[in-house]
Amino acid sequence: MSALFETEAFEADTDSRRLLRKAYLTSEWRIIPLLFGLWMLAWVDRANVAFAKLQMLSDLHFSETAYGLGAGLFFLGYVFFSVPSSIVQQRIGARLVISMIAIGWGVASVAMMFVKSVGMFYVIRFLLGVFEAGFYPGVILYFNQWFPTKRRTRNFSIFHSAAVCSTVAVSLSGGFVLEHMSGMWGLAGWRWMFLLQAVPTVLLGGVALFVLPDGPATARWLSDAERRLIQDDFARDRNHAVPPAQGSSPLMANPMLWLLAGIYFCILAANTALGFFTPTILREAGFGGYSAIGNAVAAICVLGAIGNIAFSTFASRYRDVRWHCAIAALVTLTSVLILVFVWHSSRPATFATLVFGIAGTGAGVSLFWQLPARFMRENTLAFGVPLISSVANIAGFLTPWMTGYLRDATGSYASGFIAAAGVEVIAVVALIIGIPLVARKQQSVRESCSRCS
Fold first, then answer.
1. Which of 3, 143, 294, 305 is the most buried (most CB within 10 A)?
2. Is there a contact between 279 and 50 (Cβ–Cβ < 8 Å)?
3. pTM
4. What is the pLDDT of residues 10-24, one digit of tens each?
């Protein structure tokens, strides 16, 4: 009789696992492609200025410093409005906020085609950051609602690879537009590029309004049994998480919060340097005209995205992704340093180094966002995640401005890239040494609190 009960329990457990896998797979196919498309378009609309730079600077007589400052002002708007946008999402739901954010930044990106002065360039770039501010931290929190750690690591790497793939879209379409549409109807090619690359964002934002659910509880494709299985799976996943310190200290006094923000700041410094100057690097390396540069950037980003997903998938087999994030940061800083010495002397070496740099920085960002949920209390993530993103994205403002300024001052981009690599070293050290030290301190705090209670 006991054998019969054990057999029935095993069969029920097998059926439950099968139903849970079905629920996750169905949800992944409903959610990830839409968010992937929006994130790709977000990067298209924030980073296409790097490709427009090849024509826009001479057309409007902007300096490298003006370009770097304008490119970076996006991140100031992002920093100031990231936390408020995330708070609004917690109150009114992901569907409405994410769709409205997408439509807003799409309209702002369309306005880029009308830029005629430095001041106008600065204002629109700032507004673009304001509109986009809540999307990325909102998606991070959204993934935390849908997927446990193992699935979240892999799925987030797929989602984040859209940032790399966006450069493919910018490069192929941008190269074609700059080369073949310049002067059409009296408009410069870079103006056409901003218009044509922004319209899909507005359209997909409208689709998100009708398709995206606020969470598993409102997903029409899930049955009641599937919702219960997802809830139980999350409960098991939380039991395996690193227990953060439980104390009465406020979030802003949590050293882990600021350590994570500092690490992400360092990762984004190299990420931004590569993102806003890759087309310029390829032009200086002798890759040819607009279309040839666009094809090269597209190939680099496809290979970089493959590397990002492959490395992040490998890392998802392990619960502690901290070391893998450090390895990705190490690959990035090595690539940036090598790049400084090869991009004027070897096109193949420049191409290969950029592939490794893009793969490294993509994997570094993907893996980093698995750390807050492991080292912070669950009830602090809704505020902590956007705060980390906001503080760290100051690097997005400083890096392009500093790189452009040093280019005007020294005649070379080398100093800016070396500085970005130096900052990445800090991320590697903090990941390997800093996090364990702070975690041990929090562990002792937790044990002290337990003894006192």
1. 294
2. yes
3. 0.67
4. 345 677 888 888 888
